[in-house]
What does this fold into?
Amino acid sequence: MAKRSVIPFGPQHPVLPEPIHLDLVIEDEKVVEAVPNIGFVHRGLESLADKRDFNKMVYVIERTCGICSFGHGLGYVESVEHIMNVEVPDRAKFLRVIWAELGRMHSHMLWMGLMADAFGFENLFYACWRVREKILDLHELTAGGRLIFSVNQIGGVNKDITPEMMQQILKSLDEIEEEVKPLEKAFVNDYSVQSRLKGVGVLTKQQAHDLGCCGPFAKASGMSFDYRMTGYEAYKYLDMEPITGTNGDSFDRCTVRIKEVYQSIDLIRQAISKIPEGDINVPVKGMPNGEYMARIEQPRGEAIYYTKASGKKYLDRFRLRTPTFANLAGLTETLKGADLADVPILILTIDPCISCTER
Amino acid sequence: MPKIIIPRDTIREIKLEDLMENVQFMRHSRLRLAQICAAWINNRYELSYSFVDESTYAMITLRVYVELDQEVPSIGVFYPYATFYENEMETMYGVHMRMMHMDYHTKLYRISKWAAMLPEDVRQKKIAKDKPKTVVPGASEQPDQEGSAELNAIVQKAVPLRKAEMKAMAADKDIPGTKMASSVPTGDAGAASSPLSERAIRGEQMNAQAIQAPQTKKTETADGKEGEQ
It folds into this structure.
């Protein structure tokens, strides 16, 4: 029988954006099994729910993660608004959609850069992040911050996007679209990139369903499941279809995310053309009483925000279930039978946002 | 106006005895387990098992009320990835989970306070009744007493030893009486004398142990079955 050994991967590794530890049981360069170990960035943010005013809790939740920051604020605010029966004005809903889609574009560009870095293509890594800088400039123009900008509040948003800013956004989107096209060609048509991604870490549709995967990780295996189809916020006025892949390997996960970037550009253009005039927030009175599970489509998948309150200033319970937590099981399944050199690629295909996972 | 799907969310309260039956029904209806969440409200645990229907985007939540020291069976039989959520419940809230096929022994998040999200008085009552399942090797006897006197004593004793070890490594000499030199039973004491090669020997021994029992994190279940599926 071949000799088995246990290799520890992480938490510090040049290719990992955030610390995760995997104990890989390998047998002659092939991984037989993987045991994940998380908890290196655990900050105990949920236990602050009973020490912070429910209005001020938005700031804590937004700082769970830098990349998906707007989405977390949006999910929390949605769940509390549902409990308190607050009707947000339409203009605020469209503004939230614009920021959410900008966040999705920014997250996918960041992921593309990290993926290129994982297989050693550093030039492509920097080219992707240069495009990401344009998106961060849009963030700063409209909201005042690059990554974490507190625009969400219970009852709407607290900053407005003027028509001049919208023209600037449209101009920048045209430039971004022109710059993403050659990057897409580099990912899709390049021979060496294809030989590292095609056929690596295949997950069939049945397996993805059985393991509870979500987001672009599952969409690449053929599962057409996108929460934006339920029409939360202003998505009910916008036209879109979930993007799916066919083979379920790493190459498909790459192409799904690139196509989502184009889809986000299209959604922002639709939102800017349809946005109505009006208020951007409504005043909110009283205390929350009840429970609700809000779900939104984060760039990484389905995020669930469970809030329970009982009429006091502090919440009883707040629980954030992030998409990476759900994809960890899928990760351990794809690692079985993979080469040791493919392990960084496979970890990056789930788009791990470990600081979200272990708030 | 594009076509949208409006999901219907329901919360169903069930008893702990009916949990496995209901989860089996969810599995046969091809629902996906979305989350398992624990909360401590009104002096009891409230566990929420949420399932999502892929075609209608509906979310069905099973609500189970559990007492402080009641044992909860794992639903890993139907949903293998439920063990992550259950380990998190055990680590943060101290819910007693049984029959998990991937058991982190309350150390999914490596925090020294067990059941940190319970209120302090409830937590002390729980620790007095039952300590956590296992203790991380090397830590003090009760890992939830931060800054206890014995822990401080261990730390104080280790500091000069560590300084001597660094000095000896620089000079490449063996340090008599340290934990490293005495804990590694070297077969041929004459050959391996520098700390670096002792570490290599210890690595080999750890690998040898791993081959004999490769799943160090899995545990035997309550009825004696071998761990992971």
